[in-house]
Design goal:
It contains 13 helices and 15 strands. The protein has 345 residues and is an alpha/beta fold. The structure holds zinc ion (ZN) (2 copies).
Length: 345
């Protein structure tokens, strides 16, 4: 079968690999129908993710059809149409029992990291019973691919951790796919204001279409003043950090209102200063975490009822044989305006 593999820093390739086999009785083999590329895949390519070794098939998002099931799989059978979660969960360990699937003692983020992933014609899914979700009839597959990772990430790590409430004021720093996923799901809670912050005009334009009430371009360097002005000098109740660099986290520290929540979503590779000298008396909360995907069943229902329409995040489509082109378009988002690129088999 064809698979997109990580070769070495800066390089990936489309190669032929054997079709994966059942290894554990809890495994399923899924024939992938659609997958996509995540910002994390670009991090792997930059060499930022040492757990992902050369030769690994990339990808942790997708929908497909079950091709084989192990003897212990009871919730699914061959031919079932399924959504693949980016997080594999044993369902039995202490962390899984408290819905912190990202910390599953034998699972977590495995796909396209420590085991072969979804950017291939077939993928082996460990703990299939608790890591796959049945796709309802007539559901939009394109929308559901967005539910493997980015929608639950924006929703759980941004909106739920950030305690977005009716009438509250929210700032989302970063208007990429994850920031936009937070924007889509924040609206479920009717905040009074959602201010989107980015350095790219194109992404801010998209944010306005997706329901932002105001946008702030932070490339001019006066984003703090603009946001404070927009909030009567109070700051925001929820600041969602969806970039992962020191400047954007420090922006959140400067605009958070007393009693507010800074919900970190971005993946940070650099030390960031915590300004306790200004925050110690402001009753704020800082939350962190990788997505647990406990909200996936809820998000599937919201897609079905059209309360959220994440398919609009897809800007480009490719066939698997053109996956390298898909990577270059996604990796050059500043020029191609790519948000999510769909890869179809
Ligand atoms: Zn991802
Ligand atoms: Zn577990």
């Amino acid at each position: 079968m064809k698979a997109l593999i990580y070769l070495c820093e800066g390089q990936c390739a489309l190669e032929n690999k054997p079709i994966p086999e059942i290894v554990e009785p809890t495994d399923a083999i899924v024939k992938v129908i659609k997958t996509t590329i995540c910002g994390t895949d670009l991090h792997i390519l930059k060499g930022d993710v040492p757990s992902c070794k050369p030769g690994r098939t990339l990808g942790h998002e997708g929908v497909g059809i079950i091709d084989k099931v192990g003897a212990a799989v009871s919730a699914f059978s061959i031919g079932d149409h399924v959504l693949i979660s980016c997080i594999s969960a044993c369902g039995k360990c202490d962390y899984c029992r408290s819905q912190m699937y990202s910390h599953c003692k034998t699972g977590g983020w495995l796909l396209g990291n420590t085991i072969d992933g979804t950017q291939a014609e077939f993928v082996r899914i460990p703990y299939a019973d608790s890591s796959l979700y049945r796709i309802p009839e007539c559901a939009d597959e394109n929308a559901l691919v967005m539910l493997s990772d980015i929608l639950p990430t924006g929703f759980e790590c941004g909106v739920l951790n950030g305690k977005v409430r009716p009438g509250s004021t929210v700032a989302i720093i970063g208007s990429g796919p994850i920031g936009l996923a937070a924007l889509l799901t924040a609206q479920l809670y009717s905040p009074a204001k959602i201010i989107m912050v980015d350095i790219a005009y194109n992404r801010l334009e998209v944010a306005m279409r997706f329901g932002a009430t105001t946008v702030v371009n932070s490339s001019h360097g006066n984003a703090v003043d603009e946001i404070m002005k927009l909030t009567n000098q109070q700051g925001v109740d929820t600041a969602i950090e969806a970039v992962g660099i020191p400047a954007t986290f420090e922006l959140c520290e400067k605009i958070i209102a007393p009693g507010g929540v800074i919900a970190n979503v971005g993946v940070h590779g650099t030390q960031v200063d915590l300004h306790l000298e200004t925050l110690w008396d402001r009753n704020i909360t800082i939350t962190t975490g990788l997505v647990d995907t406990h909200s996936t069943p809820l998000l599937i229902k919201l897609v079905q009822s059209k309360k959220i329409e994440p398919e609009h995040l897809i800007t480009h489509r490719f066939k698997l044989e053109n996956a390298l082109e898909a990577y270059s378009v996604f990796g050059d988002a500043a020029n191609t305006n790519a948000l999510k690129v769909l890869i179809e088999m």
